Amino acid sequence: MWLTTQKRLLTKERLIHMNIQVEIIVCYLCQEAVLETNKHLSVDCEYATRVRTTLLSWTNTPIPTADLSTTLEMIKKKHWKKFKKEVIAARWEAMIYHIWKARNWKQFKGISIQYVDIVGNVICEIEVRIEMYKNTKRALRCRSFWHKLCN
Ligand SMILES: [Zn+2]
Predict the structure, then answer these.
(1) N or C: which end of the chain has fewer CB within 10 A?
(2) pTM metric for this prediction
(3) What whole-number distance in Å separates Cα of residue 97 and Cα of residue 4?
(4) Mean pLDDT, to the nearest integer, of 61-73?
């Protein structure tokens, strides 16, 4: 999960830095002819953007678009209750994980994952997480926030 932050993902950008030849310069997810950078995959990619905007409307918590570590920093500084921060941060982490997985499945297995399936998986994971913690003090303090998400 923290690999993106450490910029250790084997994107084409990194392979080029390592002098490994990269033949196709096309994003596996949006098919655009771009250099596949971490920034592209987490910010600019049309496919990732569709996932992100759908999930944003689900939680209704606008955050400026940025890479994962910047986003997590922004969440930390928000004046939200602790549990809400945890849920929103988990949503971003799950989103990045599933986008990265979709990209790898396309590259290594030739399988396309639809963006709606990513959205569904992220929502499912977050709901399970909320279910697990819903009776804790910190969750009860922002019940109105997560009640809306789980209905
Ligand atoms: Zn793309």
Answers:
(1) C
(2) 0.80
(3) 9
(4) 84
